[in-house]
Specification:
heterodimer, A: alpha+beta, C8orf32 fold, 3 domains, four-stranded antiparallel sheet, B: 339 residues, Immunoglobulin-like
Chain lengths: 682, 339
């Protein structure tokens, strides 16, 4: 059947496929499912190649044809490596790595010959599942990957059921059972496995999170995720600064290539100090608890004049007023710092470095550049200084029909043009980026500053909470004689965002909008439960870190938990499990087969009757010996033994020993013992 | 008593001497010698062994890579994945072990075979509780590729057939049998070694092509009037015995007997066989003892096939002439056990 089956023949039905073909198709399906979420990150050629290979393999499986030779695969692999290098200019790093892993996975399906090959596919599959988490750890991705892992385990189980044609349902049930039984161990390890800092440095692009990052890409983020998780907590000693002074300074982005903002290249060590920082008045002292932000920049309150002391880290300043740790922060930190709300910074004279803050890619946003040139031609601004120009831009934003939204539609190539002149809707990143671009076009040095702005309005236990959703971007421009000045164009359109520091709700999507217009209560309920689930997910899974681990330990009664306590507890729990297993095994060792137990009790009765009955004697042999010794008197007992022999060893054997038979045998044996002997032992 | 208690079946001989292999073989022999022989083996914690497979070690390595990636990228979901796989792996260890544990292996009585022929072992696997999948059975020392795979239904039985080729005559202990499984994930291999108590009687290898039967001799002191079986009158009939040649069946009488619910009847030629066929050790002079036994075996088979009465004379042992299945068995056993 398999030989005549061609892809054009009608689908024979899942059940009627030959076993090999069915298993292969199932595995291909699982692989496709595992690769599918990667498609947006992969170069187009990789997606197409993977699709082609999987389809080819499907055809081969259906027609039961021979697999291609090894040299074909090596050739394709080399071409894929070359294409990867062409796409990324390197073979190292996250993106090329994922691309190559996908290609390898697809090509390996063409080489499924031995059991070892199948294992390579499974293990590559598990690895691919992990790579998805580099891009997103959302609930949806987790659910999709759970299905992928289930599929891979099912295929693994299927590969170890060599008899007949086991149904997929049975295999998947067995796989699920295995995983469910393993779930308690997973939970135990997850809760107690000490969260240690990275063993070696990893490229920072590997992390996707809402919050801060070292780059800002225009036009790609259509909808910023509202991440309500906590970024940091602040407790002030003394007076609390007003909300509009709550700027926590993060990465400063001054290099713009038309689509992406990046930090300026690092400078020599000698220049690692705040450039010409002048502070006035008394400092604000505060204690900050910083969640792991996976960045090296500390989001300190503006402006810090000295490095906070943090055990285990070396904090150094940069000339753009950032404070940077010697390695990314992967654990929760608590430290004391002080800030001067009144300050000026930056060079007072124009210098070479400022020139670089005027760079604009020429081929992007031509209409905005033209708009700026037109503004310059306006006699009112022909000789205006930077401050006046900034005021003019803010005025333009205030009166130009701009609106603040967290869900702007996606922007195209000339994002600033579209934003500044056409659509005029966006959030802080758009406003700050557009402001800086226009200022630079007006020949004023300017840069984008990211960080957090504002806190939750009411403190909890004296702590003001700053959430990831308070991540903000603002602008700085350079005024001769003064230095860098902060301008927050978002405040011009959404002053609420700044002064009342109330976090804005995202505009509803289409579905939510429809539901909302039908039943606002239902929508609110949906959103509430979804947010609750998402929040739990964030709190308990994604943000579970050493701090939470220590909280668990504290709840268990450890007063000052440490790394070692955690390790000890984990080792203890695992040892207890293993010991429990061993104890059970020891107990189980003495388990006796019910048949053996039955026969043993019968043998004991026979021995009492004076019939030799060794452990290896079958019922048949015992019956013969009984007849020999007791003749007709022992016949009824012998017959029972024969019955037992039949029960035990006939083709249609019964499964459980017949308890009635055992009782009757013991009773007859007892009676025989009481009777006077008729036949003398021979 | 037993001339050949060592069995040489498909055991792969190492091409060169390797100390590790030698030690391993010695250890395996020592271990197996400690196992009690039994025809019914319940697999328990005590006689089921388990070790990770190469794939299991690879799985461990994969998990290490996943763990390092999770640590370096601080991926909590990566931890979840790694620990889920670790948990499944640990559970699979127990499941693999449980696939054999609790299983009962029982060997059915085995029929004698000739040396060099395939001896069939019928093994019944019984599961008292849940279904068990992917259990492989083979003769312990045989190659991996000889594994036969079986599923045992829940609370049911599976019939398995194993075979091996005994090379020498005599009473043989059965070779150790091995049951193993990697179900469900293939990360661990669990196995049990079983030494069945039954013994296998192996007849000598019949000579091939067989030498012609020796001539029958008149019996000294027997009736002087000789009559040939084919031409003579039938002196009597007796019940058909297995192994009687068809030409001896008295078809007319048999038909009547069958109608009345009886059995087939054969002509009783014993009374008419006044010639005696002696299969004698001495007649095969010029051969080494084992070859003599082979020739005698071939003769026993030929004489039995011909339906003749025959006697067997070995040094120290004489079996009086007779015919039929019982005689055949008696002679073959004598040949198998002669020492």
């Amino acid at each position: 059947m398999a030989l005549t089956l061609s892809p054009l023949a009608p689908w024979p039905g899942w059940k009627y496929l030959p076993r090999d073909a069915r298993d292969t198709l199932f595995l291909l399906g699982v692989i496709a499912w595992t690769v599918l979420p990667h498609v947006p990150h992969l170069p187009a050629w990789c997606s197409l190649l993977t699709l082609a290979v999987l389809l080819w393999r499907t055809k081969l499986a259906l027609s039961n044809s021979a697999l291609p030779g090894r040299w074909v695969l090596v050739g394709v692999l080399l071409i894929a490596a070359a294409l990867t290098f062409y796409s990324f200019r390197t073979l190292l790093g996250k993106e090329p790595g994922v691309t190559m892993a996908v290609v390898l996975m697809a090509l390996k399906t063409l080489e499924l010959r031995a059991r070892r090959d199948a294992f390579v596919v499974f293990f590559l599959g598990f690895f691919l599942v992990l790579t998805h988490f580099l891009y997103s750890q959302s609930l949806a991705v987790a659910a999709a990957m759970l299905v992928a892992v289930w599929g891979l385990l099912t295929a693994l189980v299927l590969a170890h059921m060599p008899v007949g044609q086991p149904s997929l349902r049975i295999a998947s049930t067995l796989a699920m059972r295995t995983a469910l039984l393993g779930a308690p161990i997973m939970v135990l390890l997850f809760v107690l496995f000490p969260r240690i800092s990275p063993l070696w440095g990893v490229p920072q692009d590997g992390i996707s999170s809402t919050g801060l990052s070292n780059t800002m890409r225009m036009g790609s983020v259509a909808e910023v995720a509202l991440d309500d998780s906590i970024a940091l907590r602040v407790r002030f000693d003394g007076a609390v600064p007003p909300p509009e002074a709550m700027y926590f300074r993060g990465p400063v982005l001054s290099a713009f290539d038309g689509t992406e903002w990046r930090a300026a290249p690092a400078r020599a060590d000698a220049e690692r100090q705040p450039e010409n920082l002048r502070v006035r008045g008394a400092p604000v002292r505060y204690e900050m608890t910083l969640e792991p932000l996976r960045l090296s920049t500390l989001p300190l309150l503006e402006a810090s004049a000295s490095a906070p002391l943090i055990e285990g880290y070396r904090i150094t300043p940069r000339e753009d007023l950032r404070w940077v740790a010697d390695r990314p922060l992967f654990e929760r930190l608590r430290f004391n710092a002080e800030a001067y709300p009144a300050f000026s910074q930056g060079p007072t004279q124009r210098n070479l470095r400022l020139i670089s803050q005027l760079d604009l890619p020429a081929s992007f946003n031509p209409r905005t550049l033209e708009w700026a040139a037109a503004l310059r031609r306006d006699p009112r601004y022909a000789n205006a200084d930077a401050r006046a120009l900034a005021q003019a831009l803010l005025q333009y934003i205030r009166t130009g029909g701009f609106s603040y939204t967290l869900a702007p539609a996606e922007y195209g190539r000339d994002a600033i043009d579209e934003f500044w002149l056409d659509r005029r809707a966006g959030f802080c990143e758009h406003f700050a980026a557009a402001f800086v671009v226009v200022m630079r076009a007006l020949d004023v040095p300017a840069r984008v500053v990211t960080g957090y702005q504002g806190t939750d309005p009411t403190p909890i236990d004296g702590y003001y909470i700053v959430r990831q959703s308070s991540a903000h971007a603002w602008a700085e421009y350079w005024q001769p004689g003064v230095g860098w000045l902060r301008a927050d164009p978002t405040a011009a359109v959404a002053p609420d965002r700044i002064s009342r520091t109330r976090r804005l709700q995202a505009a509803p999507g289409i579905v939510a909008g429809t539901i909302g217009s039908l039943s606002p209560a239902l929508l609110a309920q949906f959103r509430e439960s979804w947010e609750a689930i998402n929040n739990r997910w964030n709190q308990w899974v994604l943000n579970y870190s050493r701090g939470q681990q220590f909280d668990v330990l504290k709840r268990l009664g450890v007063h000052s938990p440490s790394w070692e306590d955690l390790a000890l507890l984990l080792i203890g729990a695992l040892s207890t499990l293993a010991f429990g297993g061993a104890a059970w095994a020891w107990w189980d060792r003495h388990r006796v087969d019910p048949w053996v137990r039955q026969l043993e009790s019968m043998r004991a009765a026979l021995r009492r009757l004076g019939v030799a009955a060794a452990a290896h004697d079958a019922p048949r042999a015992l019956a013969a010996r009984l007849r020999e010794r007791y003749g007709a008197q022992g016949e009824s007992l012998a017959e029972l033994l024969d019955t037992l022999e039949r029960q035990r060893y006939s083709r249609a054997s019964t499964v459980r020993p017949d308890a009635a038979l055992t009782r009757r045998f013991l009773w007859l044996a007892q009676r025989l013992r009481m009777q006077p002997r008729v036949v003398a032992p021979g | 008593m037993n001339p050949g208690t060592t069995l040489s079946h498909a055991a792969a001989k190492p091409r060169w001497f390797s100390p590790a292999g030698f030690v391993r073989a010695r250890f395996r022999r020592w271990l197996q010698a400690r196992l009690p022989r039994t025809d019914m083996l319940l697999l328990t914690q005590g006689n089921v062994y388990i070790l990770p497979t190469r794939a299991g070690l690879m799985f461990g390595l994969t998990m290490l890579v996943l763990l390092i990636a999770s640590i370096n990228y601080q991926l909590n979901l990566g931890y979840v994945l790694t620990f889920l796989l670790a948990g499944s792996g640990i559970v699979s260890m127990h499941l693999t072990h449980a696939t054999l544990r609790g299983l009962t292996l029982h060997l059915k009585p085995i029929a004698p075979v000739f040396a060099g022929e395939r001896a069939i072992l019928n093994v019944v696997l019984t599961s008292p509780d849940s279904a068990r999948f992917g259990i492989g059975l083979k003769v312990s020392s045989a190659a991996e590729s000889t594994l036969g795979w079986f599923d045992v239904p829940a609370g049911g039985q599976a019939q398995a057939q194993l075979s091996f080729v005994p090379e020498q005559r005599g009473v043989h202990e059965l070779p150790a049998l091995g049951a193993e499984t990697r179900f469900p994930l293939g990360l661990f291999r669990t196995w049990a070694v079983w030494r069945p108590a039954s013994e296998l009687l192996v007849y000598p290898k019949p000579e091939r092509p067989p030498a012609p039967l020796p001539a029958a001799r008149p019996v000294p002191g027997g009736p002087t009037q000789l009559r040939s079986t084919s031409g003579g009158e039938v002196e009597g009939v007796r019940a058909y015995r297995r192994g009687d040649p068809l030409k001896l069946v008295a078809w007319k009488k048999a038909a009547k007997a069958l109608e009345s619910g009886g059995e087939l009847v054969s002509r009783d030629t014993s009374a008419s066989a006044h010639q005696e066929l002696w299969l004698d050790w001495q007649t095969c002079s010029g051969l080494v003892p084992e070859d003599r036994l082979s020739r005698l075996t071939a003769w026993v088979l030929a004489a039995d096939r011909a339906g003749a009465d025959y006697g067997l004379r070995l040094p120290n042992l004489t079996i009086e002439p007779a015919g039929g299945e019982a005689q055949r068995r008696r002679c073959l056993e004598a040949l198998a056990l002669w020492a």
